[in-house]
């Protein structure tokens, strides 16, 4: 092997080591915090798993999945509590997604269009709309729990000023859900607004001018030119917003604690405003009666549901691009 070949090999090794230097830490973290928990979750979902004494864990096959989805007969008792709670919390999660996602798409688009016009102080407004996204959900939850307080909250104070009757926002339905959705909108619209705004900046403004010369109104220009031009950005925010909304946890946890039930009380076995993620984390992963195996089974079923929704979105996007 001559000196030229040795130098070539040395340069190749150096190049691969440089690449490995940046990739290996990511792979290690990805494997530690995603791959291992995923397979471990699949593993314990087949066990009545004991966190403190793994030798006491018992293999029960698909019983955790049956307990979560349809109930399970244990001895002479048909246990359906967990199935009722799971399907109820899944219904709550779907309700939140169906109500919040359209608002989290339409409102940012509207705000981004207004900012794109560049009115006076538009840069300040852009910062104001984005600032809430840097806050933690704990801070946001505490702020809005006070705002929606029945006696001392700003919202009821405003209602009383106009002669209205105070509302128990966090202790009655459907007002609890209204408070949760309003909190989510205030907290998260900034990111979607920035993404849409960035897309609007790339639209050729000469197209606007040409349409206006042809007599098109500004709403028509937005509908026929601006929105089709940012369809990729819209798809991105729809995709990410749906996934984020399915994983809602902090807002109902802090604002309502999972209640109230439709009757106004936190009744046993009644989901109230409990979501799937909230139920898994609070009801099954903590407390004296924790059941990690059942929590893992519920998480995997819910994850599979989200995967189906995501694949459906991806298939629709491919179909849209093709036709």
What does this protein structure show overall?
The chain has two domains: 3-77, no CATH class; 79-322, MetI-like fold. Helices cover 69% and strands 3% of the residues. The chain has helices at 3-44, 63-69, 81-116, 122-130, 137-147, 154-161, 175-201, 205-213, 218-229, 231-246, 250-255, 276-284, 292-322; strands at residues 47-48, 58-59, 72-74, 77-79. The longest helix has 42 residues, at 3-44. It is globular.
**Uncertain residue ranges:** 264-268
Q: Tally the beta strands.
A: 4
| CATH homologous superfamily placement of the largest domain | MetI-like
Nearest-integer average pLDDT: 87
Portion of residues in beta strands equals under 5%
Largest sheet strand order: 1-2
Instruction: Supply the CATH class of the largest domain.
Output: Mainly Alpha
The helix-strand sequence is: HEEHEEHHHHHHHHHHH
- Indicate the overall shape: globular
When the domains are counted, the total is 2
Termini Cα gap: 57 Å
Helix fraction, binned, reads 55-70%
What does the main sheet amount to? 2 strands, antiparallel
| CATH topology term of the largest domain | MetI-like fold
CATH architecture tag of the largest domain = Orthogonal Bundle
Q: Over the alpha carbons, how many angstroms does the gyration radius reach?
A: 26 Å
Class from helix and strand fractions: mainly alpha
């Amino acid at each position: 092997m001559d000196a030229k070949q040795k130098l070539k090999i040395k340069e190749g090794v150096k190049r691969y080591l440089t690449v490995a230097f940046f990739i290996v830490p990511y792979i290690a973290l990805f494997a530690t915090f995603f791959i291992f928990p995923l397979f471990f979750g699949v593993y314990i979902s087949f066990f009545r798993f004991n966190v403190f004494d793994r030798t006491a864990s018992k293999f029960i096959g698909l019983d955790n999945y049956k307990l979560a989805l349809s109930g399970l007969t244990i001895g002479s008792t048909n246990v359906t509590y967990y199935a009722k709670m799971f399907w109820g919390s899944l219904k709550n999660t779907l309700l939140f997604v169906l109500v919040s996602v359209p608002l989290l798409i339409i409102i940012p688009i509207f705000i981004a269009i207004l900012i794109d016009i560049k009115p006076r102080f538009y840069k300040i407004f852009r910062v104001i709309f984005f600032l809430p996204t840097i806050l933690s959900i704990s801070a946001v939850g505490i702020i809005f729990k006070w705002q929606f307080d029945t006696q001392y909250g700003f919202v009821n104070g405003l209602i009383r000023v106009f002669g209205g009757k105070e509302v128990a926002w966090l202790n009655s339905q459907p007002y609890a859900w209204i408070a949760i959705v309003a909190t989510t909108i205030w907290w998260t619209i900034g990111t979607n607004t920035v993404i849409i705004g960035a897309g609007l900046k790339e639209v050729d403004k000469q197209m606007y001018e040409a349409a206006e010369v042809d007599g098109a109104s500004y709403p028509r220009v937005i509908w026929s030119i601006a929105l089709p031009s940012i369809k990729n950005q819209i798809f991105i925010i729809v995709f990410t917003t749906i996934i984020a909304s399915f994983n809602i946890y902090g807002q109902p946890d802090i604002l309502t604690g999972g209640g109230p039930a439709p009757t106004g009380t936190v009744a046993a076995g009644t989901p109230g405003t409990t979501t799937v993620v909230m139920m898994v984390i609070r009801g099954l992963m903590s407390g004296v009666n924790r059941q990690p195996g059942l929590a893992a089974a519920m998480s995997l079923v819910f994850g599979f549901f989200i995967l189906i929704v995501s694949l459906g979105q991806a298939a629709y996007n491919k179909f849209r691009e093709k036709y």
